Input
Amino acid sequence: MKLLHASTLRLSLFAAAIMAFWAVLFYYAIIAEINDETDDSLENYAETIMMRSLGGEELPSRSEGTNNQFFMTEVSDDYARTHPHVFYEDRNVYIAEKKEFEPARVLTHVFQTEQGTWMMLEVSTPTIEKLDLVEAIFVSMVLLYSVLLVCIVLTNYWGTRRSMRPLYKLLNWVNHYTPGRKNAALDNPTKIEEFMQLNEVVTSALKRSEDLHEMQKQFVGNASHEMQTPLAICIGRLEMLMEDDAITEQQMVEVVKVHRTLKNLSKMNRSLLLLCKIEGGHFENKVMIHFDELLSTIVPDYEMVFEHKNITTEVVCTQPFKLSMEESLATTLVTNLLKNAYVHNVAGGRVRIVLTERTLRFENTGIDAPLHPTEIFTRFYHTPGKKASTGLGLPIVQAICQLYELNIRYAFERGMHVFELSKDVLGPDGR
Amino acid sequence: MKILVIEDDNELREIISRSLTAERYVVETAVTYREARQKALGYEYDCILLDIMLPDGNGLKILSEMKRNDKDVNVIILSAKDSLDDKVEGLNLGADDYLPKPFHLAELHARIKSVLRRKQRDGQQLLQFGNVVIHPESFKVEVAGKMIDLGRKEYDILVYFMIRPNRLVEKHIMAESVWGDYIDQADSFDFIYAQMKNLRKRLKEAGADIEIKTIYGFGYKLVQL
Output
């Protein structure tokens, strides 16, 4: 939910509650005021009638066209004792002229004549219809609320956009920030203290993570680098031992095994260094690589090496895939993907390479289940049972793709494992 | 043949020296930049193995100084860095080859032999062992005076062995050198056997007096009969 929407929603809910509360208060205040006025006039009316009645004057006609009514009757002593002498109430009264019931304010007066008889006078005046009042108040409230809401939304939209501008600028900057790359400095001048702090905090946090990233990269690079000489020594000593005629065949087998392990270690080391160098952006020379030509030199070697597996290889070039990049990295990219396609293949399987203008696709048969689409690109991920791999082939492919802004996607389609490189710019979610 | 080994790591220097001495080279060593500079400029060598990262200076500086002084020596750079810039700079400064660490001694020998041969024959790089001669510029192979035809990989394999005669060559290393790094995960080496079988057959039919022998089932050696 956007900040704008959230604050608008909250403000409108709050306003709705306040207005509802206020509407109720307003209603009761109005009603109280009206009752007060009505009661006063009823009082006067009742007094007039009582005075006339007690004075023996003629009583006024029933309603005088005002719908005011009175009704006088004699009551017993008991009734007078048990009922209050002045009593106001709201109730429906039958209006004879209109021949219908209408809501009215009714004042009941019980009084004693000079003769000592108790009389009850009931005067009533039709009141406004409360339902109508409620409705009118409700309608104006709703109207007021909508006008207020529109005002709130507009003010909020304008205000948020204006005062939150530094925030959006900062967000945009962070979104476009790629660690390990050259990034433009944050240019976000603001007078708002919180945003000034936020700017500072975000830049320093990013700088810290950048430093850590750099340190980590350097560490991996240095560690791999420092291992090269000791590895060279071990391998050299073993090779001298292998040249020695005095060692037995049994010993030779062991030496060769150690030698092979060391070689794998050294290869892994070199792959790590390569990865560090790619991520460090050490490759700046670019030539136009025609991948169809590159493939035609490399694929036959693979076919020969994996001849025993009877893998059929098919290269489909609808349009040549071309990219300007470092030559050695192009070879690494293709060999790593091809190696992947062959090594994880099954006997009698297929490898299919499809080139179009914007995509380069490697498809291969293999285990009959999809691989984890992101795990396979993490360093030192091994397919179960394939221990011989360095676990760096695909991470290197990914690093090269990132360097040249290619997208790489893995999918399992119709029983084939598919790795597709494309020049299309995808969103961060990969679509 | 006199070789100067400039390497600050004691063990690596010892291994290189020992292995070169075993090949009947005369070996001199230098540990620091100062010592190396002094020896390289003051004496004559047939080949210098130069580690460019020395504790008290950059080995590339020695190279440029030698170039300024018109010293014509074969230099092979040994570097733990495997960086393209170093390689390009080194080769521009007149180095003959660049060998990233860790390397195989067999590879080192082959490179030394190759640069020495280039010097001796003034560019004419013939590879000869027994009655087999390879003309690398024209990719031609001559057995007992007659040209024979070899497949591309067969030729590569033969060249690999001809640079390393009488040396035990490990199957994996040879395959990697001929087919490239990516064969490291091949789970079968049938493709090597097939090529080797053809190559041997061709050599034998042409009457070569050299033979690629299988050693213990994990490697080969090119020997003269």
Q: What stands out?
A: Chain B touches chain A at residues 9, 11-12, 15-16, 18-19, 22, 80-84, 100-106, 153, 167-168, 170, 172-173, 179-186, 188, 190-191, 194, 216, 218-219 (CB under 8 Å).
